[in-house]
Queue: 3 jobs
Job 1
Amino acid sequence: MEKKVKKVPTEVLFQLVGESLKENRNAIFTVTGNSMWPFIGHERDQVEVAPVKYSELKKGDIILFKTPKGVYILHRIMKLTEKGMITAGDGNTYIDGEFPRTSVLAKVSKIIRKGKTLHCESLPWSFIFTLWRIAFPIRPFLLKTILFFCRLRKKIKD
């Protein structure tokens, strides 16, 4: 049986996600955009977000937050500061900037890909995510290398 997919505007989606979080329930949605590639892929992966208190967040967590301009972003915390946090997408080679604590909506607890669940807090994934965050200065080289091998693998398959 084929799953029905319903696309909704961002504002509607995050209104529903927000309602679930306010009721202390997790929410799952399909990610759009490539800023978290290679770990989270555009329209390939889903994430499960869970309500979180700012005091529970740590460097390396993937969070859903809303910028002061009203844009919803799913990125990784690179650094916690007195005012809030500095974030970056895994597929980006630049820092987003600093955002206030009040902008945090939820924390990603799971990444769902092809029916398999990756638990973000598991030791192997925590280790990989830490290495990726630490490797930020050489990320442009790493991303180009990964993309090269992805394209090569695709050519071999075709």
Job 2
Amino acid sequence: PGEWRAFQLSVVGDQAMLKLNGEKAWITEGLSDPTGWLALQVEVPQGGQYEFRKLRVVETGFKDLLPGDLDAWTAIEQKPLDC
């Protein structure tokens, strides 16, 4: 009681992982395409409440830097596959 805990929930593709205070708590696979609401649910043994602070939702993505094959690339003084 009275101590703050840190948790990190990461979802990448169809996999989710939860870390509590920096240590892996669980990991699961087979998630469907995530859409809709983001919600937090906590259960307190024998009642009570949890407080949250410093919540951040970060959507990470990536941009494919190598779309397709190297045939579309231009090389200087060499063939693209030799670069």
Job 3
Amino acid sequence: MKKLKLWTSFVALLCVAALIIPTFAADSRASDQISMYYMDVSTRKGYIDIEFSIKGTGTVDKLGCQSIYIYERDGDTLRYVQSVLEDDEGMSAENIFTHTNLISCPADAGVEYEVIVTLFAENSAGRDTRYRTFYVTGE
């Protein structure tokens, strides 16, 4: 009976491992275009500052910040305030391996904001993105 329980546990562990390994493999393939990235959001008097840096695995067709979406918290709801997109000034560059910038957007003191930042790199293999949501209060 002990051998049966041990064998059943071993088979169950193998099944779980079989499900986990493809997940890790898919994740490593997802970074074929991006070797490093950084993003941060902070506030200063009258502004939200969005800082980003992204590095491709080599020279890529296009890379940078795909989008910045800013929402204002109004009680339990979010209200769209502004967006900055990849073709706007300073957001992306072509035929390059790294891009860094600071984008500033107006903000009101005491207002809570949700800021969604998406970075990307694109080459012949496709487009790879990373995003993060930040919560800040205007100064």
